[in-house]
Amino acid sequence: MQPFSLSIATLISSNDRHDFNITDFYNIIADRRQVRELDRDIVILDIKDATREDVAVILDALPELEPRAVGLDVMFDVPHDDDSLLLAAIAKLPDMVMIVDMEGDRERGASTFHIQDRSFFFDDMPDRTYGASNMPTKYAGGVVRQFVTDFPMKDTGTAMPSFAAAVAGKASPEALEALRKRGNRLETINYPSRTFTVIPWQDLAYHADELRDRVVLVGAMNVPSDMHATPPQRMMSGIEIHAHTVSTILGGRYLNPVGPTGNMAMAFALCFALAFIHVSIRTSYKALVLRILQIVLLYYIIRIGYHFFIDRSIIINFSYTLLMMTFVLFACDIWPAHRVW
Questions:
Q1: N or C, which end of the chain is more exposed by having fewer CB within 10 Å?
Q2: What is the pTM of this model?
Q3: Which of 4-13, 123-132, 292-301 has the lowest mean pLDDT?
Q4: Is residue 61 within 8 Å of residue 212, measured between CB atoms?
Q5: 236-237 and 227-228 as β-strands: parallel, antiparallel, unpaired?
Q6: Is it the case that residue 240 has pLDDT exceeding 80?
Q7: pLDDT score, position 6
Q8: How far, rounded to the nearest angstrom, does the alpha carbon of residue 340 sit from its chain's CA centroid?
Q9: CB 178 within 8 A of CB 148
Q10: How confident is the model at residue 155 (pLDDT cuts 50, 70, 90)?
């Protein structure tokens, strides 16, 4: 919106320099707006530096605070001798969502998954609600832009919901139903300009009222092993990404991408228009006019894309358009109009 306020490097850099999408630019700009929205439905209970006994005490106290839903982003893979309080606390929260880690089946072409890691009490509590904590990226360490609705499982013939989808389903079954009606396995997380109430576990007693009738996500913030690249921030805690995902589902703030046909049609239309302008201009300043037009179009293409992304929740991939705009002008420079036409 302010063309000279940003370094040109912002257009070609990203939180992970090897994984860039044009929507990352929109996320970065939108997330730096002065106006931010505090999510009133979700609270993050930060258990960084808490011991297993501390977590057990926290879970034991949660039922008295009457949260709408609880999601526990912690995996207890190895049992301890003094787990009785932890198991008793979990038993008091029958609707709490806990995590598992999924792995894709190795058969060629398989699109099913199986559980790779789980808490030690998983087999003893088969009736509890679990959700997959996996975050889809292009490759290991890539940018987390999307979340998975459900993971189809080959061995049971059912599907494991993602952690965020399972938590959202506990808070609002209607919101989860609306998500599944969209029919998309992958959905884009709506990140920009949203913050969450974060309560350190040591201060829980002073903020007990803030948990009533709200979705409480229990997890550790700013732990190096659970930090991920996201479009608006170079690194974000996994529990905060889950919070953004739950917020996207509960608020129905889905981003709808324009299909490849629409993106290619826009690229073709602009390519044709620029070629037509090139052969129509009869002036010695043709090259200068076309370069000025190129800069103006670049600005308005980015601005229009930003407008649709933020105000209309529509993702337009202008990568093809920008690429075609560059190549058509390059072609016009090499092959003058009288030789082509």
A1: C
A2: 0.86
A3: 4-13
A4: no
A5: antiparallel
A6: yes
A7: 46
A8: 46
A9: no
A10: confident
Number of compact structural domains in the chain: 2
Which neighbouring-strand residues pair with 188? 146
Paired with 161 in beta bridges are 150
**H or E, element range at 277:** helix 260-280
Judgement on whether residues 144 and 232 belong to the same structural domain of the protein:
yes
Structure tokens at 157: 């013939």
- Domain ends where: 254, 272, 298? 254
Close Cβ partners of 217 (under 8 Å, ≥ 6 residues apart): 42, 43, 44, 45, 70, 71, 73, 167, 239, 242, 243, 246
Q: What is the pLDDT of residues 65-101, one digit of tens each?
A: 999 999 999 999 999 988 999 999 999 999 999 999 9
Under DSSP, is residue 202 helix (H, G, I), strand (E, B) or coil? helix
Residues 246 and 314 in one domain: no
Q: How far apart are CA 243 and CA 207, in angstroms?
A: 19
What does the DSSP assignment read for 36-51? -EEEEEEEEEE-TT--
User: What residues contact residue 301 under an 8 Å CB cut-off, 6+ apart?
Assistant: 318, 321, 322, 325
**32 and 88 both lie in a single domain:** yes
pLDDT digits (tens, 9 = 90+) for 246-292: 999 999 999 998 888 888 888 888 888 888 887 787 777 777 888 88
Residues 195 and 302 in one domain: no
